[in-house]
## 1
Amino acid sequence: MQNTHTDFETQFERKIDAEEKIEPKDWMPEAYRKNLVRQISQHAHSEVIGMQPEGNWLTRAPSLKRKCILLAKIQDEGGHGLYLYSAAETLGVTREELVEALHEGRAKYASIFNYPAVTWADIGAIGWLVDGAAIVNQISLQRTSYGPYARAMVRICKEESFHQRQGYEIMVKLAEGNAAQKAMAQDAMERWWWPSLMMFGPHDAESAHSAQSMLWKIKRQSNDNLRQKFVDQTVPQAEAIGLTIPDKDLKWNEARGHYDFGDIDWDEFNRVVSGNGPCNRQRLQHHVKAHEDGAWVRDAMSAYAARQQPNA
Amino acid sequence: MSEQIDTNNADTLARFAIRLGDDALILGQRLCEWSSNAPTLEEDLALSNVALDFLGRARMLYGYATQIRGGSEDELAFTRDERQYENLLLVELPRGDFAYTMLRQYLLDAFEDLYFAALTQSTDPTLAAVAAKTVKEVDYHLRRSTDWIRRLGLGTEESHQRLQNATDELWGYVDELFETDTLEQGLIKQNIAVDRADLQTAWCKRVTELLSASNISVPETPWQVSGGRRGLHTEHLGHLLSEMQYMQRAHPGQQW
């Protein structure tokens, strides 16, 4: 028995080393499985909770075209949530259990959604900066070692790049607009820039799950590397439309070939992650309420389905 | 003289396209309210799909109206007041609970299935083309809402009661589906529009059959209200418009 177990472990490590994907029926260490459930479900919850700040502008979008694009985008996010819940379910948990963990505060979602979308420009900033940051992370996750997660990421990345473009396009239009529109864009830039950098998580040295996740190739690049990549790609986009990034330390470093940038306010990061951001309570309450309000509909679905199969 | 008639006809045609667009936009806006509020994630996505179809239809119809008489789709959507909207009252009612939303959807889908099938025969080629696209969408909407009526009617005691309540509430708005005013009468004579009254028997048969099969009793209420086509709306429309039109009203004439 002991030998068989070791064989499984050797086989698992060989696959990881050879860049082969781990599939649902393959043996995997329990900690690997747990780590994946944590990460994939957190990712799924983020997609679903992220529908709320954008949904806040759905009924007020400033043109019919923008309304349709925003609705299609929010629908995509829900769809991403579905694929990710399905990917997590291949690891032996149910969506109900994952949602329960979210409602009980045992599972997290991206902390960025604990900031409010107060103006239309925030919809631009969320698409451009928040989805932009998410893509940088997700592109690297297309090579993650767990097969269903990697495949979900490939699909998600295709749609996310469209989301980022629509967000940037909103900002471009505002930047080309009148003084009020320009001010709206700059204000959103100032409120969303730092939280977007925080999306990559703590510095590598302080990241709780990073080291083991890198060894297992769940995570393929470090938080700080990904953050740098995002800054490098975003600064020229901001400059192109005349928006000022709220960081006095931001400057091009010729020697490094990267932008240097100021340090994140880690107190704020910790405050929001630990539940004290402006919308933490609202986001969770909204999700719980929709779930509870829909309970009678789900009950009716099950009762009807049971009635259709009287012999089952 | 003939030019005068053509101009009048063009304006009538534009108004007809706009009112069909209004039906689609206002229901699309109501369906948007379900985003992140639906009973399951799958249903959230499905309601968004339906909303996108309605919003897309509104854009096609407004687009046609602006081809005829100028202006833009956004002017039509965001700068007209309550009295200028000519949508059916049924579509502007608040979304209510899920049973109310699905029953409203079913009543309308069952109507639109007949209506747009007939409109594909319109002598106006643009309206016939819009109808041909719409028929395919309505086919999906109707299959979905029909399934929901069965599930809710035959599901649990609570879902049955909620669906019955929705039926009792909404039944007073169905006669308006079949009303034809002078504007549409003129277009019917030219085989451009569809005579709504012709559809009523088939609609009633279909709807009452499904409701009965779902254990829902059809109310025998004499109470019927209409007025949408004359711009006489419920008090709900103004609130819907003030939310929907906020940005264009606050920043008139800007591009987004």
## 2
Amino acid sequence: MSSIRKFEKPLGMRDTFPKIFEKQEAIRSKGREFLQLRGYEFLKTPTLEYYDTVGKASAIVESSLFKLVDTQGNTLVLRPDMTTPIARVASSKLLKEKIPLRLAYFANVFRAQEHEGGRPAEFSQMGIEIIGDSSVYADAEVILTAIDFLNQLGVEDFKITIGNAGILDAIIRKNVETDEQFAELHQLLVQKNLVGFEEAVARFRLPRTEEETLLNFLEEATELTSIRQISKYLSGKQALLYMEQLASILEIADVAKYIAFDFTLASHMNYYTGMLFEVFAAGSGFSLGNGGRYDGLLSDFGKDVGAIGFGMRIDYLVEVMPQQEVPKDDVLVLFVSMQLQEALKTAETLRAQGKRTTLQAIEGLEDVATFEAQFSDVVRIGQGGISL
Amino acid sequence: MSNTALTIAMPKGRIFEEAYDMLIEAGFNLPENVEMSRKLMIEIPEENIRFILAKPMDVPTYVEHGVADIGIAGKDVLLEERRNVHELLDLNISKCHVASAGLPNTGLNEIAPRIATKYPNIASDYYREKGEQVEIIGLNGSIELAPMIGLADRIVDIVSTGQTLKENGLVEYEFVVDVSSRLIANQASYRMKNARIQDLVKRLKKCVREG
């Protein structure tokens, strides 16, 4: 281990420089207005949580948690997601006041990198949760909100892939013999390792019909033309009717072009119980965000109510948003110290016009020309209060 | 964005030839001979495809980050690199296997068995699974040297014909895993360019030879 140099940061930690900060801030302020107009209430939760509560209930793998110990010897974690803390707050307090709750957040979450850089270990998420509504309309609202939000940001080329954790679990379970087999196949689908799935099915030596069912399902479910195709793999039809209802709501809302169904979609977030989805857009090689129904998580915190939500990555949103050239309109008021009063007045007038105005004493500059070059407009207030 | 090219990351060298021929067989309109000795990128406007030529070990990296939509990578590389990519199809080409090998009639050192390999992850996974604690020594090539001059008790490396082992007086001890080339995809490209990728998978699937 070589010694740490002065400029270094821990692995995965990033600085946000002014230009990127402005872009992220623009998303935040648009998002805030957008979500408030839809009746979502913003909240904040602490950065640190107990490992035994939020740390364990969150779906993030143990090795990705940043852990520390408090003065009493309790293990703490930097929050690895926002859904779990919100489930904690909602079940202990907010649900007593209002049901269903519509909550929203902007927050940084922390996930340690196992291998290398290229991905941040701390990143901003924006998300919503609807807690206490188990109807299909809550599912639809969450998806439509995600779509409208992307449209609002000017992102047009994106896809939302929808699956259902409950249906997928039922189909795999029905056709395998042991829990280990189930876990292996599920994990292979999380990684979308289709080759591995086929190999594993062959290795299990399942009865012919089960083997064929699993392989056909894999092929058919990734290229679905209608949800009804899945029907033959299921004994109970309730979950499927639910999905058909969801599909028809999305049809009515005229967003079908953004939607694709894939019933092999599986998530590493193991608290999803029903519908789940992932968001992708042209311009980013990673998933912008994901969401789904997580009815089980609330019962971990002692409340038996349905809940659904999504979270989106602000850093990836910045990448896929159309680049708007903000006209550079920065004014520099450069003054000699004798003329401070005049300079203050000038700056005030300019700021009242909505111009970004930097006030700088010429005495404080070493290289006037270089500094001036960074502004679109320069007002010099020299001797005798005359602007030159 | 259906007009953007499909970027395919190809491993340089032997696998390139086999995979490229397979694409031609699948009906893609590609020039018979490509001059790829020094090039890193080849544009095929007729098919709206762009090839990037990478070191085999790096193909999954390009695909994971989405600078390539799909790629062709050996299973050995996928196991070693553990990248987050979709594995869509076993092309069943460039077949070989990963095995452990060493000098004939030798066992593992009892105190600190040493394994030399350019696949530290595969090797340590394998021995951990077996319940043996070993020390891994990472090398970048000429792995066969390690047991010959006493750096390690065993090597873990890919074996295709066994000729290299034989020439260096080594014998194969344990089979670790089968290797063949796989078609992999970036998770976002798989959704955004789904129709093109599915079409490619279907066409290639028809050209996959068994055995």
## 3
Amino acid sequence: MEGIDFNIALIHYILFSGIIGFVIMSVISFNKRLLVVLGTALALSQCLAACWVYGFIAQNGSLSSSVNWITFQSSTLSLGYWVTTEAALMLCVVTLVSTLVNLFSSVYMGKDPGIRRYYSYLSFFVFAMNGIVLADNLLMLFVFWELVGLASYLLIGFWFDKLPAAKASMKAFLMNKVGDVGFLLGILIVWSNWGTLDLEVLKSMDLDFNNAAVIAAGAMLIFGTIGKSAQMPLSAWLPDAMEGPTPVSALIHAATMVAAGIYLLGRIYFMLAPEVLVALAIIGAVTAITAALTATKQFDIKKVLAYSTISQLGYMVMGMGVGGYAQSIFHLTTHAFFKAGLFLAAGAIIHHLHHALEQQKEPVDPQDMRIMGGLKSKMPFTFVVFLTCTLALVGFPFTSGFLSKDSIIHQSVEWANSHGGWTFIIPIIGFAVVGITAFYMTRQLLLVFFGEPRHEEFSSTTKPKPSALSFSIPLGILAVGSLWFFYSMNPFSAEKSWLVRSFSDANYQYPPVSHLLTSGIALTLLAAGVVFGYTRFGKAEQGMQLDEATTWNNRLLRNNWFQDKILHSLVVGPILRLAGLTVAVEKKIIDAIVNAFGVMMVVLGKVSNIVDRLVVDMFVSLSAKTIGAGGQAFRSLQSGKVYLYITYAFLILITLTIILIY
Amino acid sequence: MEFTNFISYFFIAIVVVASSGIFLTKNVLYAALLLVFSMLGLAGIYVLLNAEFVAVTQIMIYVGGVLVLVVFAIMLAHNYSGKPLVVENNNLKLGLFTVVLFVGVVGYSISGVHYAVQKEQDGANSVEAIGVQLISRNLLSFELIAVFLLVSLVGAIYFASKIRKT
Amino acid sequence: MMSLEPFLYLAGFMFAIGFAVLVIKRNAIFMLVGLELMLNAVNLNFVVFSKMHGTVEGQVVAVFVIVIAACEVAVGLAIILNIYKHFKNIDHHSINELKG
């Protein structure tokens, strides 16, 4: 039992050191160096503890511990941990990425006056995310879910003096809230139907998927995922979230916030009815392809990555929908590494360009790929990392991305095979997204690293000073983590991967559809995407001219399918019009009623005033005068003269004597 | 008998005159002097009533002690500026009304009953009997009154001595 | 045997006079004198009834009363001196600190 206690203590440490770090960093003003060391050391220690816990769980099975929080008559709300293999893995990923981001930020945010705030928010963010990962019941999960929302709001709006950042943070927060309302409704459905929110208890209940309540609960709960993981109706916030600092983007996109949605699906997977899963598959597929298409036309280096994140998340949701639970979590893990690597590499590029452009007279956006080019020779290490992570993202063999993406597509083909009919659209979309991803990542690589520098400032500057260790260490780790050997000894199949095996049945087998066929199709499409990208952007200027042309598809894709406009006209506009209408109603009708009521009250007040003065006041003043006269009469008795008191006392004595005698 | 009656009426007259004088006079010093006369008259009455010890105590304490104190107080509490120590009356009507009422009640009460000596005292000397009483049945009261006297005198001295200090 | 009623009437009269002096005279020393008269009236009653019953109980109480009277005079005079010190006179008509 001692071992378990020790692990629980470690979990306590992993969770609470985040909030303690937040408080300490918020309250005490460290100097910059100490702050960085503290933040990184905290994250690193959490990471090591998480790895230990993972090792323990992988050997001894899941771990749970809870305390009662609120006890009702028949049921109890508890607070506690339910650490399954997935949870432990997520802990490792979250804390590792946060460690690297902490380290990376020491230089990236080094000159920012708000660095103390930044580090404390990071700590808080990780705390909230760990809470989601560890929570053993839906309510606690929801609480931390909201805390993650808050933390993302704070970090996206970190530079709140910039209007776009402030707006983006608000947008992210509000759109998340839309999903959270659905999530909360789902929780209420669960509570009212089964009287418990404990995930372990719910899992042991063997829910009947024909029950409408189960379907309703599942359908509402996935709204949380749709909001948090930026799935189709609610995906517009994520590209705007790029306004935050780039390391934060890495954290949000790789490990913490958007991963929470997928993780939630994994947690409640046993509650999802087949109908809900189909809906998930459709949502995921639609999101994956629309976001991938949007990414092909973006010029902002971070926006491309943002849309690719949405696309990959769509993959994961789709994977969940087609029954590839283990594959989705696997893809989530691998994605965390290569996407964090991509974002941090992009951060390094932006950091470099920002410093190179500091002397410019008119402000130039350092994130615009149109001014880049030819960075391969100037930032070779960053290039290598970026290339590795790109290969992983597009699913090139010998990378982690190949393993996980391949297994998801494979699962979807198998699923379509067993369902038949229209469901083949899902794997087809999956294949198409592979090609599109290859295309837009090739475009990005070509625009950023190849060709000639397209800005005179860069062409004149010599090679930048070798990147700092705090840049290269995280980038190196993430690049290595994007290779295949860390996950599976066989670079072409995840079938024997220890990770996949660790959270699914031990006799996990690839579905019987030919693995070679699906991989072949995917790789062919990949190659086609790369080739198409190269032919189009081999000469960067031509490609950019094509993208900048105002054709309908360019406009559509560059504006993300006009999601913002649609949302604005469908949701925001009607609400504003409704508000205007209610204002009119309020002014014309309710105010009139209120005014009439007021006039009536005034008249009544006048009448009661008269009555008051004539009748009530008379009584009052009469009684007051009577009492006053009485007081005046008896006042003289209380003269303060001793002899009078004696006289009175004696008179009373005589009176008593007379009464007694006669 | 006749002589005793005469003597007793004589003393009663002295007391009545002296105490009426106290009420009538406006001079504090006269009042003190008349008080002495009434005390002396009372002492005489006590002797007639076989209460020699009380009579002697009365003379010693009132004439020897109280009067001296009163005279001291008069001297200390008045500024001598040649004018007589005139004291005004107040509360005359109410006070007299109360007094008349009281006299009426008491007189009526006394007049309804005949009072006479029911039993002669055994032994001519009451002093011895008082002594025995004081240290037997009334010993506690006696001791307490002694302590009370001491305390009140000490207190009075302390109280009066503060005046000089301030 | 002689009648005791004259002494009782005398006691009542003395008490009445003492009370009149107490409440009517505008001087603190007069008040004390009036109090003495009242106490002596009570004393007289004690002695008279002691005579009437042929015991010395009343005389003993009378002695106690005399002692207490002495105490009262001592304390009272000390108070009067303090009042004089404080108000610069002993006219109790003007001493009305208790006035409501």
